[in-house]
Specification:
20 helices, Hypothetical protein af1432, 13 strands, six-stranded mixed beta sheet, Nucleotidyltransferase, domain 5
């Protein structure tokens, strides 16, 4: 259960209540939901009912999904649940669930390209291709991590045979979907389920970019096989609540990767719950999700907006002059550079001394619709390293290669120095360029440098820091 409030132009989560019921585990071979499983579900809903008492009925959405769709006695459970909640549950069709999942992803992930969204639930898996807020191809199939756990890992063993059986079965179900989906095509792939969240957390624990690749899936599969049984699973970064169904969820995801020739995907920060939420809110399709989130953070942390825009203008100018030599594109990493210009001082509200650490903490932990986990890692590195010593290890964890991340960080750092005096009228007209990909030339007038010794000294000191990135700065230009 997620409880939110609308705050300015953004949504703020004020409470979450979460219980792992795994209702699908209560389905038998005839798809009859056991009394024991229903009791677990009803107990959970009784906790939710207490929290819902003070919320107007028109502000509440309650839905049931795959397990209740499959259960032959699902209506019996809904009738009992309605009495416990004092409100009515809506049973979603598979297509409705898929549409809402896509809406949740679209509202929380910034993607200008056609996207392929994958969601692996307990009893169903949703596959959606769409662009912007519009799904173009949707499908819900009856394979899930809980039901597959019961079918293929019921003996609790993690061996090649069980994995092969699960993956093969999933591929058979997916086979009819390959042609129609591939005919539409996609440029990016996002996943929003617990399985993919668990895999991303393993990557984060290892200080690796949260990009799930086919190689990483095979790596985790081998780690699980080495554990021999579900009870003995011990993988750093994997939480105990995900342990019982990680093997089955992984099998389904590996089948999807193989069937659709997927090489990598990114974790989405939204799915079904967010889709339901945004469906309730006034929908403005013209609102840029990232812009809305960035403006909300700037307002909340009292960022000096004029200075942030000043730094951003310098970053754009330096990027345009350096990009040909460094072969930089105005892609997602460029967008994150500009966002870092606007957010690099959000930690100042707490204190100056450690504000870069505070800024990084906020980026890592705040609700940031429009920025997935991989985006956060690069944004976090930028705001933490925009001045002072450079920890290159942080750049290696980002969504882009470490060299490109280093180039963009250099642009940010120089932009901040050039705007050090926080005034619009102080910077003269200057030229910038890159020699042999390694030396950044800032052709500032000598007279101006003499009149502004602080900025001149900061640029000289920056030479030592940028050497960490294999770069140098030349400011002794005669203009």
């Amino acid at each position: 259960m997620m409880i939110t409030r609308q705050l300015a132009d953004s949504v703020q989560v004020v409470d979450k209540v979460k219980r792992k019921v795994r209702l699908a585990a209560g389905l038998n071979g005839q798809n009859i939901l056991s009394e024991e499983a229903m009791a677990r579900g009803l107990e959970c809903l009784s906790f939710f009912a207490e929290r819902l008492q003070d919320i107007p009925v028109e502000n509440v959405r309650i839905v049931a999904t795959a397990t209740i769709r499959l259960a032959k006695n699902g209506q019996t459970f809904i009738e009992r649940a309605n009495k416990v909640l004092g409100q009515n549950i809506t049973l979603l069709s598979g297509e409705q669930e898929a549409e809402l999942i896509y809406l949740g992803v679209a509202h929380t992930s910034c993607c200008k390209e056609k996207r392929f969204v994958i969601d692996i639930g307990g009893a169903s898996t949703e596959l959606i291709v769409g662009s912007d807020l519009q799904p173009k191809k949707i499908c819900s199939i009856d394979i899930g991590c809980v039901t597959y756990n019961r079918q293929f890992f019921s003996d609790g063993l993690l061996n090649t045979h069980n994995f092969t059986q699960a993956i093969s079965a999933a591929k058979q179900v997916l086979k009819p979907l390959i042609k129609p989906y591939c005919a539409i095509g996609w440029q990016s792939i996002l996943g929003g389920s617990g399985t993919m969240q668990a895999l991303a957390e393993i990557l984060m624990h290892q200080n690796r970019p949260t990009i799930i690749t086919d190689g990483f899936l095979k790596e985790v599969q081998q780690q699980l096989i080495c554990c021999h049984s579900i009870e003995q699973i011990n993988i750093a970064g994997l939480t105990s609540e995900r342990t019982p169904v990680i093997a089955s969820g992984l099998s389904i995801l590996m089948a999807i990767f193989d069937s659709f020739l997927i090489k990598q995907l990114q974790l989405s920060s939204g799915a079904l719950r967010e889709g339901l939420l945004y469906e309730m809110l006034p929908c403005d399709k013209k609102v840029n999700i990232r812009k809305r989130t960035t403006l909300s953070l700037m307002h909340r942390y009292h960022v000096d907006t004029e200075h942030a825009h000043r730094v951003k203008e310098q970053a754009i100018s330096l990027f345009n002059s350096c990009s040909p030599a460094w072969q930089l594109d105005k892609d997602n990493s460029y967008d994150l550079l500009l966002t870092s210009c606007e957010l690099h001082e959000i930690g100042l509200l707490l204190e100056f001394k450690h504000h870069q650490k505070h800024s990084a903490y906020i980026i890592e932990n705040a609700e940031l619709p429009g920025f997935d986990q991989a985006d956060r890692q690069l944004l976090k590195a930028f705001v933490k390293l925009y001045k002072g010593d450079i920890d290159t290890h942080l750049l290696k964890q980002s969504i882009t290669d470490s060299q490109t991340a280093g180039y963009l960080l250099a642009i940010l750092r120089l932009s901040v120095i050039l705007c050090r005096l926080r005034k619009d009228d102080l910077l003269p007209h200057y030229k910038s360029s890159v020699d042999a990909q390694k030396t950044i030339n800032l052709c500032l007038p000598k007279d101006w440098l003499a009149e502004h010794p602080l900025i001149a000294d900061e640029l000289t000191l920056e030479e030592k820091h940028l050497a960490t990135l294999g770069l140098s700065v030349n400011i002794q230009c005669n203009i």
